Amino acid sequence: MGNIPKRRTLSCVIALALASSLFISGCAPGGAQSTGQTSQENAAVAAALQEKYGQSQTVDYAEGQSSVARDHTFVISYGFDPVALGMNDYAQIASLYYDAELTQPVASSYDWASTDKKSYSISPKEYPGWAVYTDGAEGYPYGVSGSSGRLFDKGENADWGNAGTMYLATRVDLVTGQTLAKPVVQVVTVKGELDTPSLSLRVAENGQVQFSWNAVKGAKAYYVVELNGADSGKNASGRLIGHTSGTTWSSGSKADAVTGGTFNTNKEFMTYQVSEDDWLAPATAKAYEGQYDPEGGAIALSGSANKAYSVIAVNESGSSVYSNMLGIADIAALAPATIAYNMERLSEEGFSGYVKGVAMMPSYRWIVMCDGKLSQRLVNYDFGAATEETEGRYNEKADGTGGYDAVSTDVLKIPYTVDGTAFTGTLVVSGYDKDNKDSQIEAIKARQDSLKNKTGDIQREVTVMEEGASKPSGANAPAKIVVKENVITANSALSEYLALSMVNGMQTVDLSGFPQALDQKYLVDAWSEAFYQNPLVLGVSDVSVSRDGKTLYLKYEDAQATRESKQAKITEKVKHIVPEIIDDTMTAREKEFAINQYLCDTVTYDNAALENAEKYNYKKVDSSFYDSFTAYGALVKGVGVCASYSASFKLLADAAGLDSVVVTGYLDGSLGHAWNRVNLGSGQWAAVDSTNNDIDVLSNAILNAPDSAIASTLVEDDLWIMDSVISQYGNQSDRDEYYHVKGLFFDQGAVVSQIVDQLASRDTAVVRTNYKLTDGQFYDIGKSVVKATGNSKLSGFYWMGVVVISSDPTLVK
Predict the structure, then answer these.
(1) 3-state helix vs strand vs coil in the chain, percent to 5
(2) Could you tell me the pTM of the whole model?
(3) Cα(69)–Cα(158) distance, rounded to whole angstroms?
(4) Are 705 and 687 in contact (CB under 8 A)?
(5) In what order do the strands lie in the sheet with 551-556?
(6) What is the DSSP string of 438-466?
(7) Over the stretch 6-35, which tens digit does the pLDDT of each residue have?
(8) Which is nearest to 393 in space by CA: 414, 410, 376, 415?
(9) Which of 237, 346, 432, 526 is the most buried (most CB within 10 A)?
């Protein structure tokens, strides 16, 4: 079996045996026992679900081990002769991996553990993987001393590094040596000197990326770490990029020395070499001619996809292992990078900071995201800070001599910010009607208010209980799971088990039948899917799991009797609504349109609930707003935020026989949001955002548009469905897109005549054209419409290719 290394002293022995089953015994420090005996009925439910999903699993799980020491040594014992069976590698029997898919092996040291060579040990390599390197870490208070350049260097063969979870995979029967049909995997968690923080991400109102985490007992500082090669396992290395004694860390921004505004932010998270905006510059297109196709989108920086970010808690004694990791791709899709100058200014009439007339004030500005994609963001004008001034200008002489006349012009200067970014500026308006200035400004204010996108979701986290902590107060003993008639959406045994438990309102959930629950990433994945895809799970306010992964504790916003009453009313309301809006002759798309329209017609968006959530940083809301974040709000009370709209859509779709899911993520990168996807056939899962389809002047802009059109507006996270299936949900077709179906989508060459025809009989024309319509193209359309109608007082805007031209300056219909 290759070169035999020298014998090592064992810190702890895990004996493995496999006959009809695999079991572990050992002496891991701090290992907790099960908090209670699962009832026979619940155990039967768990076993049935494991059998139901067993065929789809690529591995079998055995009971794992929690909180092993950093220098822990594993011993693999077997009853066969590996050499006689032709084995030449220890890993052919059992080995460690960093990932549950068993693609990233842990760099390990192997040695015989017995003289008869019927067992061998797996111990840390000379130098650990997933280490943090301290070059350039001046000012960091703990753990940076030492000549090795590694944080809290423990010497050779003494540290598994900072990866908090490993997977011990056994590939053969340990009695016979026969290859198993599936590897048997044991989840192993490694304990640092401190408990592990839980890391979350948000983009602040000023566009800066903000990491936040929970306070860890005993921590005196927290280090933010950038990992390179995080997708390649053993080669990943960490670099310190920030430290704080608090529980938040924000990215930087760069000021524009010319204008005083901010033009560049989140530079450390930019992943593009050439952005979608850069392709609009002729010089860029020419420089890359024949090498890249501009239609392919942004060109990524080499190696940028391999980065991830984590945080560790530290004190003078050591550190925690890595928190959960945030991938650079997920951050870059949310974070604004810079103003899209080419998109706005390649045309003479693109956004330049000067407009003639209040009605021409733009509604949106284009920005470039850190992944290189273009995004349109609403302009927030500070009308209270507007000033009237006189500016001196030079106008070309009317006599054609080529000279210029000095003139004085009255202008209105209005400061603004760009929604969800750090970008600021001042718009200069000339040629305005001074006598009617106030009424014109009120009209623009009303227009901008009407265009605000609507969000609203509460961030929920599964936390690991601190070592030695007692169970939460009020947690009851495990109750019986009652399998009801309601449809359960799940993609794993654990997800379905958790959904059933929460629908039944259980406060204590015994997970001892699911050894994979020790893997916190997998547990969070399963819990999140169970919560979001099953809207009769109402108002979960707190989720925690014991350190050994065997018990989940839940708290709810409402009492059990109240929840059951609301579940019954929701179910009854769905049974009443569906026959009114759905019939058996409808296609899947017609059913989808009907459900979307029902919600738009009957639900009022709850702005007060959103403001209340903002007060608590989207972690909770006051009790008077509980319902606005569940299906009860939209369906029964007729009021809610996006979480309520999307949950209601899912319930109505289920009852109508549609395949649908709730999707979570971010709207315009800044605020948590929820919407839906619907299976319309041909492998397409189209996006429908009923919350924002209920904007009168932009109705149904996000109703089955292809993913390429909505990618920078709706950014998905990975919480809403199991990671193993998330890639199945997407839509590249515009066959079912609302404006196509309604005959309101036109090539740019045909848009003008369609708008003119509509304006002949109404105040406002609405059509859709190229999803990436530019400022210059929009203004060309506007000029042509003005010329064709003879109406110079028309105004308008566009968003995601939807063009709105109106004689009503408020555009509120």
Answers:
(1) 25, 30, 45
(2) 0.86
(3) 10
(4) yes
(5) 462-464, 540-545, 551-556, 508-510
(6) HHHHHHHHHHHHHT----------EEEPP
(7) 223 232 332 322 222 222 222 333 333 333
(8) 410
(9) 526
Supply the DSSP symbol for 636: I
- For residue 74, which of 38, 100, 49, 110 has the smallest C-alpha distance? 110
How many C-beta atoms surround the C-beta of residue 13 within 10 A?
Answer: 15
Return the structure tokens found at 270.
């930019």
Is residue 351 scored above 90 in pLDDT? Answer: no
Nearest to 187 by CA among 517, 662, 584: 517
The edge-to-edge listing of strands for the beta sheet with 179-190 is 60-68, 179-190, 165-172, 94-97
pLDDT for position 139? 87
The dihedral over CA atoms of 379, 385, 390, 392, expressed in degrees to the nearest 10, equals -50
State the pairing for strand pair 604-605/551-556: unpaired
The pLDDT-based confidence of 480 (bands split at 50, 70, 90) is low
**Could you tell me which of 745, 741, 758 has the C-alpha nearest to residue 796?**
758
b/e sequence 155-186, b meaning 16+ C-beta within 10 Å: eeebbbbbbbbbbbbbebbbeebeebeebbbb
Write the burial class of residue 346 (CB in 10 Å: 0-12 exposed, 13-18 middle, 19+ buried).
Answer: middle
CB atoms within 10 A of CB 404: 11
Query: Contact at 8 Å (CB) between 741 and 700?
Result: no
> Which segments of 557-704 are extended strands (E)?
604-605, 639-640, 660-667, 671-679, 685-688
Q: Are 171 and 94 in contact (CB under 8 A)?
A: yes
Give the Å distances, CA to CA, from 215 to 82, 247, 462, 613, 615.
48, 6, 15, 21, 20
Q: CA-CA distance, 367 to 376, in Å (whole number)?
A: 6
Q: Is 603 helix (H, G, I), strand (E, B) or coil?
A: coil
Number of helical (H) and strand (E) elements in the chain, helices listed first: 17, 42
Helices (H), 108-229: none
276 within 8 A of 377, measured Cβ to Cβ: no
